Amino acid sequence: MSRISATAAAASREPQGRQPLWEEMVKFDGEPFTITDIYDQTHVSRHTIRSYLKSLVLAKYVERIEPDADAVREEAAIKFKIIVDPVPHHAPRLNRNGEPVTQGSGVENMWRTMRMLTQFSPRDLAAHATTDIVNVTETTAKSYCSTLLRVGYLKVVSKASPPKKQAVYRLIRNSGPNPPMIQRTKQVFDPNTKQAYPVESKT
Predict the structure, then answer these.
(1) What is the C-alpha to C-alpha distance for residues 91 and 24, in angstroms, rounded to an integer?
(2) pTM of the entire structure?
């Protein structure tokens, strides 16, 4: 599969996803943690961690625990803990004001589902990627699968037999936690590898 130049790829870069940050927070199982605890495991910038935690606190997913009045008031002394129950598997998508953001959530959920399941149909993908606030249709799932197949991320396990049986796929290029994004320039950009792949026309 041909690749677009590094210069073109750099111009298309997407921000680092928040799922790795959330997964590390969840590992504390309700116990307090610090920004340093999350940084040490993810190596995501402290600014990004601090910003996401601020959104989570505003949305009441996380509680900020201030140090004692007589303690040294440094960032290392400030702790956080998840207070929402049940704890969602998917990282909450929030803006700076702690308000839900749904744009792009469907793609993130589909990619995460692909990485979790051994094999899947578009119907499976849509069902697992749909949440209380994000709706992923079978048509959307079919389109995403078709595009990723054409750029080498998926393999067909069994072909479709219309009108009832859908194709079944397997993920063969698990490049990382962030979803490959279909761009208007008819290419798929992978934020994990910083590579862009042109979507070849069907023959």
Answers:
(1) 11
(2) 0.57
Residue 91 domain-assigned (yes or no): no
Backbone φ, ψ for residue 82 (5° rounding): -75, 130
Q: Which residues of 94-128 are buried (b: 16+ CB within 10 A; e: fewer)?
A: beeeeeeeeeebbbbbbbbbbeeeeebbbebbbeb
DSSP secondary structure string for all residues of 47-105: HHHHHHHHHHHHTTSEEEEPPPTTS---GGG-EEEE--SSPPSSPP-B-TTS-B--TTH
Residue-number span of the structural domain to which 147 is assigned:
6-10+104-198
Residue 58 lies in a domain: yes
Residues 115 and 186 occupy one common structural domain: yes
* Cα gap 106→123, rounded to integer Å: 14
Q: Is residue 93 part of a domain?
A: no
- Clarify whether residues 110 and 180 are in a common domain: yes
Q: Domain holding 31: CATH number? A: 1.10.10.10
What pLDDT, in 10s, does the model give residues 36-73? 999 999 999 999 999 999 999 999 999 999 887 665 56
The whole-number pLDDT of residue 12 equals 34
Instruction: Provide the number of structural domains found in the chain.
Output: 2
End-to-end CA distance of the chain: 16
Please, how many CA atoms are within 13 Å of residue 149, restricted to the half-sphere of its CB?
19
